[in-house]
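We were asked to recover a plausible sequence for a given structure. The inputs and outputs are reproduced exactly as logged, with field labels preserved.

PROBLEM: sequence recovery
POSITIONS: 217
GIVEN STRUCTURE:
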């Protein structure tokens, strides 16, 4: 019994210092304090979203290859939390298989995703470098998720009006990945002729990683 208790205690210590990988949550969850919400799942096709991504022999292990922007892969396993980051086991083809971290809250380039899902077959973006995963669809009723949201004449264009917390709208068009960031944009209608484009979310903002717009309950 004492030996078993010792093993359990050691496992707890390893988890606390980040040496023992933990399972992470898919579909937008993140138990990994150093990572952004997860956007990949087993079976997805993904690609390197930044200038490079390190492929490792284990979560947080030794680098076996550096892959560059646009390199595509298939997700085999994960997410797994190791060293505070979310890792996936991925396959680039040709026998090149390993583990890579999906994102980082803090890096020399700020908060960012290293890996991203590839667009759906119909061209609808499932990832946009400056935004979180889209959660709205055409026909949805949405609302302002923060203290304000800027309604613009076009994606990234001049501001038409500033809308307040929990003001509701109908989604007319989108998502579109465009403008600086780039960001996910939707064309929306607040009623009374107030129609324009608004960004749904940002990975980096003065208030951190957040959604400006959200589906109405």
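RECOVERED SEQUENCE:
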């Amino acid at each position: 019994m004492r030996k078993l208790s010792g093993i359990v205690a050691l496992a707890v210590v390893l988890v606390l210092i980040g040496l023992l990988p933990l399972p992470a949550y898919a579909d937008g969850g993140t138990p990994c304090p150093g990572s952004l919400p997860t956007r990949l799942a087993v079976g997805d096709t993904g690609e390197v979203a930044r200038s490079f991504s390190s492929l490792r022999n284990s979560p947080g292990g030794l680098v076996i290859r550096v892959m560059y922007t646009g390199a595509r892969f298939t997700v085999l396993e994960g997410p797994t939390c190791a060293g505070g980051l979310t890792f996936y086991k991925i396959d680039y083809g040709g026998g090149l298989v390993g583990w890579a971290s999906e994102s980082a809250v803090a890096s020399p380039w700020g908060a960012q995703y290293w890996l991203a899902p590839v667009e759906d077959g119909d061209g609808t973006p499932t990832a946009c470098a400056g935004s979180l995963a889209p959660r709205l669809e055409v026909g949805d009723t949405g609302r302002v998720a923060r203290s304000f949201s800027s309604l613009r004449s076009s994606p990234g264009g001049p501001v038409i009006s500033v809308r307040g917390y929990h003001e509701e709208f109908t989604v007319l068009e989108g998502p579109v990945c465009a403008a600086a960031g780039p960001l996910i944009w939707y064309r929306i209608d607040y009623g009374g002729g107030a129609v324009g484009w608004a960004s749904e979310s940002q990975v980096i903002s003065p208030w951190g990683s957040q959604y400006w717009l959200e589906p109405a309950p």
